[in-house]
Amino acid sequence: MGMSNDKLNPPYNDLIGDILKEYTKKGGMDNLAGHGKPLSQEYFSGDTFQHFQRIAKDAGYKPHWLNLQHEIRDELIAITAIQRADAAAELELRIEKANEKIAEYNKSCPPPMQKGSVSLSNIEAAIDRWK
Questions:
Q1: pLDDT at 123
Q2: DSSP states of 28-48
Q3: ∠ CA(117), CA(123), CA(128), 5° rounding?
Q4: What pLDDT is recorded for position 9?
Q5: What span, in angstroms and rounded, lies between the C-alpha atoms of 45 and 95?
Q6: pTM summary value
Q7: Hey, where are the domains in the chain?
Q8: pLDDT given at position 116
Q9: Backbone torsions φ then ψ of 29, nearest 5 degrees
Q10: Are the C-beta atoms of residues 100 and 118 closer than 8 Å to each other?
Q11: 116: which residues sit within 8 A by CB, 6+ positions away?
């Protein structure tokens, strides 16, 4: 039985290596920023992970966790906005109900005692009128 056609151990493919070779052939590695210049001393300080983070950051790469952090922040802001909108909708409904009561009040009280309807913008003044 030949092991060369074993499905559990397929032949090794260096996809990234192949992509880089093809990119280099097409001139993609020519004229890179900093080509031929010595690396700054800060690239030689710290550990390997810090090097990776610094180089990746300089190249504009964001790690997965940072992308998630931004997505979560944006989602929480959206939830808060919806929450505020729902609260505003509830306030509008309560103001509408208050105005219905004001209309009923105005129909049953003497004309000089009638009062105007309320809105979010004039509710502070309306409180004084209803004391």
A1: 85
A2: TTTT-TTTTSPPPGGGGSS-H
A3: 95
A4: 67
A5: 64
A6: 0.42
A7: 52-131
A8: 92
A9: -95, 0
A10: no
A11: 102, 126, 129
